[in-house]
Amino acid sequence: MNILLLGPPGAGKGTQGERVAERLGVPKIATGDVLRAAVREGTSMGLAAKGFMDRGALVPDDVILGIVKEALATPEMSSGVVLDGVVRTVPQAQGLKRVFADLRRSLDCVLMFDIADDEVVRRLGGRTVCERCQTPYTGKAPGDPCPRPGCGGTLVRRKDDEPSAIRTRMQAYREQTEPVVAWYRADGTHFIRIDAVGAVDDVTRRVVEALDECGSEGERR
Ligand code: AMP
Q1: Regions of the chain where pLDDT drops below 70
Q2: Most distant CA pair in the chain: distance in Å?
Q3: Smaller CB count within 10 Å for the chain: N or C?
Q4: What's the confidence (pLDDT) of residue 220?
Q5: Residue 102: what pLDDT?
Q6: Distance from the CA of 141 to the center of ligand 1, in angstroms?
Q7: What confidence tens digit (pLDDT) does each residue in 197-217 have?
Q8: What count of other Cβ atoms lies within 10 Å of the Cβ of residue 46?
């Protein structure tokens, strides 16, 4: 199955996306992770993206579509993929549709993670990530050791989790990403809204139900 996860920053797309990918036995691609790796490695794409990312703005569509095109053409992504944060503008949604069409594939489902603004601010403001393994945590302080056994990394705050960048990211979401919802509805893509508030396992249960709905719909088609 090819699944797209949509929703504001901090909605839990990364965490739930890992679980969805594992359940479906397909890889997950998150453009945010690809871009952060490029920044760390100092590639030309990373250098070009860094300024946008640090202030919480969106990276240009052609950069994102380049990443997506390259990733989807790889053999390991040929039997399905979970796309996390990959579509944040209408031109990206249109571009992804073209990339899939060229590969004679299409999106099976869009899962939209629904969460209120104040909960996003609360989650992102309290988030740290391990500088080494990149695992996100809540309720830990920058400088704490990474709790993952054997990692040995230190937790840091992401630059774009600072208050001014959070405001910019939420504005980008409202202005550029929310219109994507209407676009997918008009396109006729199977679209399921998920309540993203609550314990991680509860949200996972809702996601699994959505995947079942998505799978049975796929069989009927
Ligand atoms: P994330 O880890 O998903 O929160 O993404 C971190 C940052 O990477 C975003 O704030 C954007 O600057 C950039 N980014 C990731 N995915 C996209 C996308 N599909 N379109 C534009 N920018 C993106």
Answers
A1: 216-221
A2: 51
A3: C
A4: 46
A5: 94
A6: 24
A7: 999 999 999 999 999 998 865
A8: 17
Check if 174 is active-site: no
Residues 6+ apart with CB under 8 A from 45: 35, 38, 63, 66, 67
Catalytic hit among 13, 28, 36, 123: 13
pLDDT at residue 138, rounded to an integer: 87
DSSP string, 2-19: EEEEE--TTSSHHHHHHH
As beta bridge partners, residue 83 has 4, 29
| Partner residues linked to 30 by β-bridges | 84
Residue 127 annotated as catalytic: yes
Q: What does the buried/exposed string (b/e) look like for 47-63 if buried means 16 or more CB atoms within 10 Å of the residue's CB? A: eebbebbeebbbbebeb
Tokens describing residue 182: 């209407």
Q: Name all residues whose Cβ lies below 6 A of ligand 1.
A: 9, 30-32, 35, 52-53, 56-59, 64, 85-88, 92, 160, 169
Q: Give the per-residue pLDDT at 218.
A: 52
Q: What value, to the nearest 5°, has the Cα angle with vertex 139 and ends 133 and 144?
A: 50
Helix (H) or strand (E) holding 155: strand 155-156
54 CA from centroid of ligand 1 (Å): 10
94 in helix, strand or coil?
A: helix
* Tens digit of each residue's pLDDT (9 = 90 or more) over 80-100: 999 999 999 999 999 999 999
- b/e map of 130-141 (b: 16 or more CB within 10 Å)? beeeebbbeebe
Query: Would you say 36 and 142 are in contact if contact means Cβ atoms under 8 Å apart?
Result: no
Catalytic: which of 19, 36, 169, 206?
169
